[in-house]
Amino acid sequence: MSTKRIKADTARGVSALLKEGKPGQHAVGNGLYLKVSAPGIGSWFFRYKIGGKTRRMGLGKAGTANASNKDPLTLAEASKAAMEPRTHLSNGLDPLEHRNELQRQKETASATFDSLAADYIAAHRVGWKNAKHAQQWENTLKTYASPVIGKLSPGSITTAHVLEVLNKEDFWAEKPETASRVRNRIELVLDAAKAKGLREGENPARWRGHLDKLLPRREKVQAVKHHTALPHSELPAFMALLADAEDTTAKAMQMTILTACRTSEVLNATWDEINMSAKTWTIPAARMKARKEHRAPLTDPVIALLESLPRIEGNPYIFAGARQGRPLSNMAMLMGLRRIERGDLTMHGFRSTFRDWAGECTPHPRDVCEQALAHSLGNAVEAAYRRGDLFEKRRALMADWAHYITTAPTEKVIRGDFSKKSG
Predict the structure, then answer these.
(1) Across all residues in the chain, what is the average pLDDT?
(2) Whose CA is closest to 230, among 394, 343, 329?
């Protein structure tokens, strides 16, 4: 006994095919097809040939309406939807390209710089090292770009608009570093708009060969401000002051200076990164500026400091903060400097102090000093051949550094004290 083949050219046939749920494609007629994916689930598409190529154009869902399958099309509705692409085809138009062009026009009409900037940040947020970077993007564009170009469509933004952003209230002259970042961010957003087909032509925020002919280089406008660094001759007295404190912030500052690491690397350090027996601290690539794992040798003073710290249950961080499961605040060390009346300094500046001391007072090679700071080698050829991390040589360098800053005479007087507890 043979089974009668169910056809999709009637409402009853469509219902039967969907109920059966056997995956397959079923011709309705005149290019309209029903695709069944599973029981109760399907979709409609229009199949046509143009330029010798067969193409498919989705028309909508089929099946039973429910929370996951909203507004499915009936056979009658799908047949009506297929009439438009047939008309375009008879007029020599590719229905799918025509629909895509209408969608692009709709997006172009509704897109603004602000909406595209939000899309760009959302798309790249996962690839940025921390949430702070995304926040900086949002804040700078909202403050400087949005008042001028935020409501404009990407295709209407001109060089004059970009210059208005950069020259408003002497922005380029007064805050050249921030202005340069804003310019670059505008350029990236407009590049993304072009990639989406929402603008054409040259990017009005491009620097090389464009804005560099209209604005002075930021280095010429204002000298680069380096992080204030304490002279290395004064550092032993400073370390003696920190060593007298039992404050968690002071201990974090000591470890930052002893390892010459960045403050974020120290504050986010966890106990499982430390190998006490090997005297090694392995910082994962995700937390390094260069996105490359960094091994830091731990000197005896660092080991002693770590052994003096309590391990807080439920908190993996070496320098535990007041909040459960969180590290010390990223403002803690800055506030620590202010408490000892050294607001003129920055913690990052101690990396410069280390580099000055290593270059002026020791015979350690330049590349060893640069590796200690986790700096990328400037010469690409040198970097290609330098496969090791000079770990043992760096261990010797950091031992010399620790000895100098913890045992050298402390002739200079350092202001303030850590009598007021925090962290």
Answers:
(1) 87
(2) 343
